[in-house]
Write a structure and sequence with these properties.
Blueprint lengths: L1 H22 L2 H7 L4 H4 L21 H13 L5 H8 L3 H17 L3
The structure holds heme C.
The site of heme C has 18 residues, from α3, α4 and α5.
Length: about 110
């Protein structure tokens, strides 16, 4: 009986903590992504500056967002503004932001 409880508890614990590490924390990402809205125009993702192109990032694929942000961070992608943005976040924060942005097409549909 005790053994069963212990197993059940560790499964519950594992499933409660694992996704946060692997996937990023959507709620933390929502807070962090606040600064992205000025340029990327969250919500609705319309370009707030009509004179230059800002890509749509809401609802974008999770892995794609992480790859793009890491590429700006490493300098592989050379856009200075986005590099400055990406450099200011840790890997975990990039996962959190990406989790939030990729969740937008399903949970925050307007
Ligand atoms: C000052 C304006 C500005 C801010 C603030 C900003 N971005 Fe960007 N972002 C851009 C521009 C402009 C591009 C296009 C850059 C290019 O051509 O490489 C871009 C590109 C991107 C891309 C690549 C999209 C693609 O389709 O490849 C991602 C992902 C992204 N931004 C995420 C973010 C996130 C997340 C934040 C907030 C942490 C953020 N941006 C804040 C202006 C901004």
């Amino acid at each position: 009986m005790k053994q069963t409880l212990r197993i059940a508890a560790s499964i519950a614990l594992a499933s409660a903590t694992l996704p946060a590490f692997a996937q990023g924390d959507v709620n933390n990402g929502r807070v962090l992504a606040y600064t992205c809205a000025g340029c990327h125009g969250v919500p609705g993702y319309k370009n707030v500056y009509p004179h230059y192109h800002v890509p749509k990032i809401g609802g974008q694929n999770y892995e794609y967002l992480i790859a793009a942000l890491n590429a700006y961070r490493s300098g592989e992608r050379r856009h200075p503004t986005m590099r400055a943005q990406a450099e200011s976040y840790t890997e975990q924060e990039i996962r959190d932001i990406s989790a939030f942005l990729s969740s937008l097409n399903t949970s925050d549909r307007k």
